[in-house]
Structure formats: structure tokens, C-alpha cells
Automatic annotation (TrEMBL):
PANTHER family: METALLOPEPTIDASE, PUTATIVE (AFU_ORTHOLOGUE AFUA_6G09600)-RELATED (PTHR11014:SF63), PEPTIDASE M20 FAMILY MEMBER (PTHR11014). It comes from the Bacteria. This is Amidohydrolase. NCBIfam families: amidohydrolases. It comes from Neopusillimonas maritima. InterPro entries: Amidohydrolase (IPR017439), Bact_exopeptidase_dim_dom (IPR036264), Peptidase_M20 (IPR002933), Peptidase_M20_dimer (IPR011650). Keywords: Hydrolase. Residues 185-276 form the Peptidase M20 dimerisation domain. SUPFAM superfamilies: Bacterial exopeptidase dimerisation domain, Zn-dependent exopeptidases.
Length: 398
């Protein structure tokens, strides 16, 4: 493993910073303290800071030896999750019902470490923008920063992201071109029937029977309409109807999520869901209302940028520790919005299986969005070395 020497020496300092952020988690668009910590550190290293993109987002500008018009963006997310931490070690969350259960504290600390090194050395030509993004967890912070002028105010030609990945050996990388994370979308279907006494169903139009039939029929969009080689998931997660045992209700509601690895698959699924909903409701003499909300698009890596990330990762952890055959996850990531706007790549950095956790961790597994999770601080110099080397190599490209 070839890590940058000063980053190794800074590990304890950056660990303390990461654990401080972990102990003070903040939810989407509430990352005020976290933003203050980020800005204070960047400014102390002589890095100009722009605040306010995406409400609490921060962009730091690190200029190299010479201006050559080339610029690259490196992005970390800052927000926590609205869930209770079950760990009891010293740096556990101090805020009830809030927790860094996805490692955004570690992502922030790694990028800060890289920014410090780049600012102190500036042994590159061009500009590095370090992007600290709010509200990744379901509130489209990346899109909000873009809408607020991220790429106009900071004109970069490429942008890169990184996420820790529990279950992968600590310090290994997973990198693939094309889709790496699924798109996240929500739907709500309301069925309006005609209520009646349960003993006299012929006098009503039963929305529950329509909902039952619809729940089965919607799955045919995956099994009969979609190419079997184009992965997708349609999950109905809620069905609500009725208030009494002997009453057929007036209405029923179904809610759920659709995940795909391509927007073409999503277009097909949304269209077929709407058609099936309408026709099924008609078959049961009900009225329907179908609402489909596109939240995050699939995260799709650009081939050239993914190839560069592979080269960089191999130079740091060795070829044997870079997995180019990882299977994409149907979990979603709003870095997808940035990759739709600019070339770039999103990689996974193995977080291990939880053996790194301090005494006092919860009894659950060390997986993302779990109350027993904690970021592996041994990754700090690895991730920071990757960021530094990636920025320098991208800027050095002809």
C-alpha cells in the first residue's frame, strides 16, 4: 500500500475530527455546525470558502502552481440520518434520534484531509474544487447545489465521488463503468370505490379487491414487459384501507418504490404502471389516481473517468485490492445528479466487517443505515491519498 506520508501522520488528528462530527450529527439542510467545522478548517489552510450553495453546502477552491483552465471537483456528503444510535462508545451521537449511520462523517474527514495536503503542497497545475454537500439522504442536496449554480460558479470539467462500503474488505476499492447505484422513485396509487356493508358487497364497488389485484398485476411490468437483462425492483411497501371489520371502505391506497439501473427501464415501468392502474380500476368499477415521483436517477459512471479511478486506486492499494467486477446496488445516491451534468465516477471504498469498532458498539451489524454502524478510521489516509492522487492525475491529463 502506497499512502502519502503526511496523511498517515495526520491520521490521529483527522480521526478526532471525524469522531467530533459523528458525535454531533445534523440532518438534511441543518448541517450548520458541520459546515462551520468544514469552513473553519479549510480557511485555516488558506483555502477560500464559498458557503450557501444548497443552503448549507460548501465549496473550497484550491489553485495549483499555474492557471491552465482545467478544474476538477471532489465531493463529500455531510448529512446524518433520522435514526437512533445504539453504540455507547465515547463518540456516539449526542443528539437523540440522529446518527451518522452512513459514514458521511468519514467522507467529510477524508476530503478535508486531502484538501489540507493539496493546499499545503499545490504541486499541480489547474484548480481543485472540494465540494461538501448537504442533504444526500433523500433530500436531493446535490441537485440543490447544482440548481444554485455549482457548475456555473465553479466551472469544473469533471467531478468525482466516493462512498464507504461495509462488507468489502477494509481499504479495497470497487469501481465499474456504467451503473453502480440504482435510481430511487416513489409511487402512490389511490383507488376510489363505493362503500357498502360487508354482508352486501354487491351494493358497493370494492377498492380492496381492486388493490389486491393491482398489487399482483403491477409486478408484470418487471416480469413480462422489461428486458430480463435490465435489472429493476418494484416494491409495494404500504397498503391502507378500511376502518371496520364489517364495512367495505370507499377507498384504498398503495405506496411503494421503483428502483432501476437505467432511465429507459424507468420510463417503461412508469408508463405500464399507469396503464395497469387505470385499467384495473375500471375493471372493478373504481376510479384511480396514479402519482409517480422520480427522486434520484441511477448513478452511472463515465467509462474514461472510471478507468482513471481504477489506475489511481491500483497505485495506492495494489491491483489485487481493486475489484472491477462489483455488482451494482439498488440503493440510491444523489451524486447521480452531478454525473448527469458532468463526466465523472463514483467508487466504493471497503469499510470492513465491523472489527474496527471501539468497545461499546451496538449489537447489530456494521452495515449502512444500522444503529450499530461506525466508520472505519483506518480508511482516512487511504481515502485521502486516493483523492489527492486522483485530482493530480486528472489535472495532469493532456
Amino acid at each position: 500500500m502506497k499512502l502519502i506520508e503526511p496523511l498517515i501522520a495526520w491520521k490521529d488528528e483527522m480521526t478526532a475530527l471525524r469522531r467530533d462530527i459523528h458525535a454531533h450529527p445534523e440532518l438534511a439542510y441543518e448541517e450548520v455546525r458541520t459546515s462551520d467545522v468544514v469552513a473553519k478548517n479549510l480557511e485555516s489552510w488558506g483555502i477560500p470558502v464559498h458557503r450557501g450553495l444548497g443552503i448549507t453546502g460548501i465549496v473550497g477552491t484550491i489553485k495549483g502552481r499555474n492557471e491552465n483552465g482545467k478544474a476538477v471537483g471532489l465531493r463529500a456528503d455531510m448529512d446524518a440520518l433520522p435514526m437512533q444510535e445504539t453504540n455507547t462508545f465515547e463518540h456516539a451521537s449526542k443528539h437523540e434520534g440522529k446518527m451518522h449511520a452512513c459514514g458521511h462523517d468519514g467522507h467529510t474527514a477524508m476530503l478535508l484531509t486531502a484538501a489540507r495536503y493539496l493546499a499545503e503542497n499545490r504541486d499541480f497545475d489547474g484548480t481543485v474544487y472540494v465540494i461538501f454537500q448537504p442533504a444526500e439522504e433523500g433530500f436531493s442536496g446535490a441537485k440543490r447545489m447544482i440548481d444554485d449554480g455549482l457548475f456555473e460558479k465553479f466551472p469544473m470539467q469533471a467531478v468525482f465521488g466516493l462512498h464507504n462500503w461495509p462488507g468489502m474488505p477494509a481499504g479495497t476499492f470497487g469501481i465499474v463503468p456504467g451503473p453502480i447505484m440504482g435510481g430511487s422513485n416513489l409511487f402512490k396509487i389511490t383507488l376510489e370505490g363505493k362503500g357498502a356493508h360487508a354482508a352486501m358487497p354487491n351494493l358497493g364497488h370494492d377498492p380492496i379487491m381492486a388493490a389486491v389485484q393491482l398489487a399482483q398485476s403491477l409486478q408484470t411490468t418487471i416480469t413480462r414487459n422489461l428486458d430480463p437483462l435490465d435489472p429493476a425492483v418494484l416494491s409495494i411497501t404500504q397498503i391502507h384501507s378500511g376502518t371496520a371489520d364489517n364495512v367495505i371502505p370507499d377507498n384504498a391506497e398503495l405506496r411503494g418504490t421503483v428502483r432501476t439501473l437505467s432511465e429507459e427501464a424507468l420510463d417503461l415501468i412508469e408508463r405500464r404502471m399507469a396503464e395497469i392502474t387505470d385499467l384495473t380500476a375500471q375493471a372493478f368499477d373504481c376510479q384511480s389516481n396514479f402519482v409517480f415521483s422520480r427522486k434520484y436517477p441511477p448513478t452511472i459512471n463515465h467509462a474514461n473517468e472510471a478507468a482513471l479511478c481504477v489506475e489511481v486506486a491500483k497505485s495506492i492499494v495494489g491491483p489485487e485490492n481493486v475489484d472491477q467486477t462489483i455488482r451494482p446496488s439498488m440503493g440510491a445516491e444523489d451524486f447521480a445528479f452531478m454525473l448527469k451534468a458532468k463526466p465523472g465516477c463514483y467508487v466504493w471504498l471497503g469499510n470492513g466487517d465491523g472489527d474496527h469498532r471501539s468497545k461499546g458498539h451496538g449489537l447489530g451489524p456494521c452495515t449502512l443505515h444500522n444503529g450499530s454502524y461506525d466508520f472505519n478510521d483506518n480508511l482516512l489516509p487511504i481515502g485521502a491519498s486516493y483523492w489527492v492522487e486522483l485530482a493530480k492525475r486528472w489535472l495532469a491529463k493532456t
